[in-house]
Amino acid sequence: MDRRTRPARHRRPGRRRLDRGPAPHGTRGHDRAAAALAARRARRPRRAHAPRSRRVRAAHRTAPDNGPGRIRPARGGLALSRQASTPDASAPDAGADAGVDAALRAAFTEEWAHVVATLIRTTGDWDVAEEASAAAFERAARTWPRDGIPSRPGAWLTTTARHLALDRLRRRSVEVEKLREWRDVEEPGGPPDPADAVAADADAEWVDDRLRLIFTCAHPALAMDARVALTLRTVGGLATGEIARAFLVPEATMAQRLVRAKRRIRTAGIPYRVPPPEALPERLDSVLAVLYLVHNEGYLASSGERLMRVDLSTEAIRLTRLVAGLLPHETEAEALLALMLLQRARTAARAAPDGGLIPLELQDRSRWDRTDLTEGLAILTRLGSGPVGAYRLQAEIQGAHASAATASDTDWHRILACYDGLAARSDSPFIALNRAIAVGMADGPERGLAELAALEAGGGLGAYHLLPAAQADFHRRAGDATAARRCYRRAIGLAPTAVERRYLEGRLAALGA
């Protein structure tokens, strides 16, 4: 009998179709998993007020043959961590409900990338991997409240997602070759993936599927905006709508960006693997550049009405911590983590109650986050006299600010030395601008103005608002209010965000007419 026409009573139990009809707009793949968790939270308050007959029916569906105090094993033989059930199984248990919700959220945060990465490796199909992973989380949202939380949620989700992906591939008559590849990977005796061989030395740290996923998403063959979107979506687990809102583009535009990125990976033959040792430094630079860009957009939004997008900074830190943990011998990954933590520590002190910008020298340092500061400085101490790269130098600059009890205690000569090191590595005009500011703070406003004038003559920052803003500040410090007002007006005209314009307007107003 054809599977598609087989009556429902003859179908195998527990094998629901992965593609159960069109998903709501914006809920394809990963978004469906997030939607399932949100729907479960939305449904929960109504359960406490359900008619008694409904609650009784729900109780009878919960392992009726197991007897009191026994829990039916989850599919796949995974043990459950839920405690023995109480005799009054029909009573709503708010504590258990909250525990399931917490477990689902934790699994979504910690396991999404691992489940997707494993399925991409075994199926070779990004869409199937995302759809099956999302369906696994949907199934968890339905079954964990009934059967209990698995003792190993990640293993439960991966096993479930594998079964769902295999079901989907079986239904595709054109996927015979993929099924053969799947068997080669999954069945004993098939050709092993070299990256799966667990070595006894440090190279064994490269085998994690999440590393394959991270390096593929940040491959230099992809455009930078595509790398950022794909990393946040596939590795970070953010929904398409969330990414679109963060970067102020329509959701449909972001969805197409993700589709094009996956198509590029397929058509360009970008390999799903961790680069070999000789290529790792260059490829790691690409990964860290993506994470740094995400963090910078969160630390100081490039457009819009908001000064910061804390959610982006938090996500960048989480992903950087993941990379640093997977590649513990790569000091630049740790240095980038320290840089992000030390900048995030100032979040609460950077914005006024009206949302306005508070510059570093005027911030209330008692509001800086001590946990982030302590961790960031501890990383710098641990790195010690090891290799010094660009992220380490930037982290050292933030460390100098973090170590100063007051703005006047800041060691600007130490900061200038770090910018000298950065300028020796890169001819970026933005590094040159920050170095010029450090010169003025270390050696006086006149020296700073001379450095800025030379930089302006080079023409590399003609439309960048922070060049005239820095000139205005040094003119103010030197006592030349007329020149300062002129530079502030120019900076206001170039400022890209309303928050920065308001700050500059305030500085201009403080100088009087």
TrEMBL record:
The text of the family note is: Belongs to the sigma-70 factor family. ECF subfamily.
What keyword terms does UniProt attach to this protein?
A: Sigma factor, Transcription, Transcription regulation
Q: Where is this region: Disordered?
A: 1-75
Q: Which GO terms describe its biological process?
A: DNA-templated transcription initiation
Q: Which InterPro entries match?
A: DUF6596, RNA_pol_sigma70_r2, RNA_pol_sigma70_r4_t2, RNA_pol_sigma_r2, RNA_pol_sigma_r3/r4-like, WH-like_DNA-bd_sf
Domain of life according to the entry: Bacteria
Q: Is the Transcription regulation keyword given for this protein?
A: yes
Q: Which organism is it from?
A: Agromyces archimandritae
Q: Where is the RNA polymerase sigma factor 70 region 4 type domain?
A: 215-265
One example of the protein's molecular function in GO is: sigma factor activity
Q: Name one Pfam family in it.
A: Sigma70_r2
UniProt protein name = RNA polymerase subunit sigma-24
Query: Where do Basic residues bias regions lie?
Result: 1-18, 40-60
Q: Start and end of every DUF6596 domain?
A: 283-382
The UniProt record lists the RNA polymerase sigma-70 region domain at 115-173
